Structure to design on (468 residues):
C-alpha cells in the first residue's frame, strides 16, 4: 500500500463499512479474510493518463470506449503535450501514445487505416486500396475495399495477380472464365469468398437493394487497382481494322464503343443466373468452384471465441491465399502465436484491438486497431490480438500461402520436456515453476483463449488497484 490512490480507495471502502453491522459474510469480514468485495465498493477506475498513475502490468486501456484522451505518462515518467495534437487519432492509438513498458527498439509501421486511403469515386460506386505504396510492410499482399451500388458493374477485366475476396455486406454477382474456357457465374453474399487465379477474366455486379461492399486481396503488395487490364481500354487501343477482322464485322459496328475506360459504372439490373447464362452452341459450364461460403463453415469453438479457416484444403482453387475468420469475445485473447509460412495481413471488421509484435533482437512494438484498419505481422514474428473493447472483435487473418499455419506458444511449451521449461523460465522461483507446469501439462492450441477468473466482480473493478 505505497500508492496514495490505493490507500484512499481502501479508506473509502472502510468508511462505508463503519456503519455496517458486523455479520458473518459482511464486507468488513470479507476484507479481514482477504476476500474481494462486490464491485460497488470499488471506485470507478481513475484516468490512467495522469502523471501519478501506476500500472506495472501494462494492462490495456480502451480509450475509445472510455472516451479517454491518451497522454504520454507512464509509471511516473513522461510529460504533458504542448505542441499540436490530434486527439481523435491519439484516442485510436493509445498504445503508440503510451506504449507498454515492454515495447522496445525500432519496428516498422504495421498499421494502416483505410480512411487514410484515397477513394476513387465512380458512377454508383467507389474503391480504395492499401498496398505497399500506402504501407511499406504490405509487400506480400495488397488490399482493395470496393463498393458497388445495385446494378453497378466492376467492368470485365483481368490482372496478373490472383484475386481473393471477402464480401463485407450485400450481394454480388461474379462471372469468370476458367483456363479450359468454362464459364462460371454465381451470386454471393456477406461472409462469402471468391478467388480468381492469375489472368482469369472476371466481372462483378452489385445486386439487391443496396448492392455490395467487399474486401479484395491480391497476392502481390505492388498490385494497383488502377492498372488492371480492362475490356474497354483494350478495344480503344486496337486499330478499328483489327477489331473488324477479329469479330468478323464491318468496322462501323465499333463506331460508338466507349471512348474511355468504364471501370465502375451503372449497369442494368441483372435477371436470375439461369436467364443470364449464355445459350450459345459451344457454351460450357466451368467445372471449377470460384466461390466459397466461409461464414457458413462450422466454426472451431475455443474458450474465448471462434475460428473458421479457409485455404486450399477446403477451397481448392485458392492456391495462393489462405485465411482465418476470427471472433474474439470481450476479455479474450487471440493467443500468443506466430505464422511460419507468410506475413499476416489482418483486416479488422468489428471491435477494438491491441497487438504487440515481437520482432526478435529485443524489439517489440504495440499497435491498436479499429474497424477498417489493416495490420501486418511479418512471418515468424510472435504476436497476440487482445480484445480491449466491450463488444466481440471480428477480424480476418490473410496470408499469401496455400495453407493456414500457426504455432501456439502455449501448446509448444506443453509439448516440451518440463525440466527444460522450468530451467529456462523459473530457475529463480521453483514454486512458480510448479504452478506453470501444472497449467501447461495438458496444453493444447486454444486459438482464442480466455482466462476464466473465478470472480466476475473482481474483474469489473479496476484490476490495477486491486492488485496493490
Ligand atoms: Mn479483379
Ligand atoms: Mn496471427
Amino acid at each position: 500500500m505505497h500508492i496514495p490512490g490505493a490507500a484512499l480507495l481502501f479508506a473509502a471502502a472502510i468508511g462505508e463499512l463503519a456503519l455496517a453491522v458486523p455479520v458473518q459474510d459482511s464486507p468488513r469480514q470479507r476484507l479481514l479474510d482477504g476476500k474481494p468485495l462486490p464491485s460497488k465498493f470499488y471506485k470507478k477506475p481513475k484516468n490512467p493518463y495522469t502523471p501519478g498513475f501506476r500500472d506495472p502490468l501494462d494492462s490495456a486501456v480502451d480509450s475509445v470506449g472510455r472516451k479517454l484522451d491518451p497522454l504520454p505518462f507512464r509509471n511516473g515518467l513522461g510529460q504533458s503535450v504542448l505542441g499540436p495534437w490530434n486527439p481523435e487519432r491519439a484516442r485510436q492509438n493509445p498504445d503508440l501514445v503510451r506504449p507498454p513498458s515492454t515495447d522496445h527498439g525500432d519496428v516498422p509501421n504495421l498499421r494502416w487505416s483505410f480512411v487514410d486511403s484515397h477513394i476513387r469515386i465512380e458512377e454508383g460506386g467507389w474503391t480504395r486500396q492499401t498496398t505497399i505504396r500506402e504501407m511499406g510492410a504490405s509487400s506480400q499482399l495488397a488490399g482493395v475495399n470496393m463498393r458497388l451500388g445495385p446494378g453497378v458493374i466492376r467492368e470485365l477485366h483481368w490482372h496478373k495477380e490472383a484475386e481473393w475476396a471477402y464480401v463485407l455486406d450485400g450481394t454480388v454477382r461474379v462471372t469468370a472464365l476458367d483456363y479450359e474456357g468454362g464459364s462460371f457465374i454465381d451470386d454471393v453474399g456477406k461472409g462469402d469468398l471468391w478467388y480468381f487465379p492469375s489472368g482469369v477474366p472476371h466481372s462483378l455486379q452489385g445486386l439487391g437493394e443496396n448492392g455490395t461492399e467487399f474486401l479484395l486481396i491480391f497476392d502481390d503488395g505492388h498490385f494497383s487497382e488502377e492498372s488492371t487490364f480492362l475490356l474497354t481500354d483494350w478495344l480503344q487501343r486496337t486499330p478499328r481494322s483489327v477489331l473488324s477482322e477479329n469479330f468478323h464485322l464491318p468496322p462501323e459496328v465499333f463506331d460508338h464503343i466507349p471512348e474511355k475506360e468504364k471501370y465502375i459504372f451503372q449497369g442494368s439490373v441483372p435477371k436470375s443466373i439461369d436467364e443470364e447464362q449464355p445459350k450459345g452452341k459451344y457454351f460450357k459450364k466451368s467445372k471449377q468452384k470460384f466461390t466459397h461460403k466461409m461464414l457458413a463453415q462450422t466454426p472451431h469453438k475455443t474458450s474465448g471465441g471462434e475460428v473458421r479457416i479457409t485455404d486450399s484444403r477446403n477451397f481448392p482453387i485458392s492456391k495462393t491465399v489462405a485465411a482465418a475468420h476470427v471472433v474474439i469475445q470481450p476479455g479474450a485473447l487471440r493467443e500468443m502465436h506466430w505464422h511460419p509460412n507468410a506475413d499476416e495481413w489482418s483486416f479488422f471488421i468489428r471491435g477494438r484491438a491491441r497487438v504487440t509484435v515481437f520482432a526478435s533482437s529485443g524489439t517489440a512494438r504495440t499497435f491498436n486497431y479499429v474497424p477498417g484498419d489493416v495490420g501486418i505481422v511479418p512471418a515468424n514474428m510472435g504476436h497476440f490480438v487482445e480484445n480491449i473493447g466491450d463488444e466481440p472483435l471480428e477480424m480476418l487473418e490473410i496470408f499469401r500461402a496455400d495453407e493456414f499455419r500457426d504455432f501456439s506458444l502455449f501448446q509448444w511449451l506443453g509439448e516440451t520436456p518440463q525440466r527444460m521449461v522450468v530451467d529456462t523460465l523459473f530457475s529463480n522461483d521453483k514454486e512458480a515453476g510448479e504452478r506453470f507446469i501444472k497449467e501447461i501439462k495438458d496444453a493444447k492450441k486454444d486459438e482464442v483463449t480466455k482466462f476464466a477468473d473465478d470472480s466476475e466482480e473482481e474483474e469489473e473493478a479496476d484490476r490495477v488497484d486491486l492488485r496493490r
About this structure: Residues 1-20, 455-468 have pLDDT under 50 and may be disordered. The pocket of manganese (II) ion (ligand 2) is lined by residues 337, 339, 344, 377, 383, 397 (CB under 6 Å). The first strand starts at residue 73 and ends at 74.
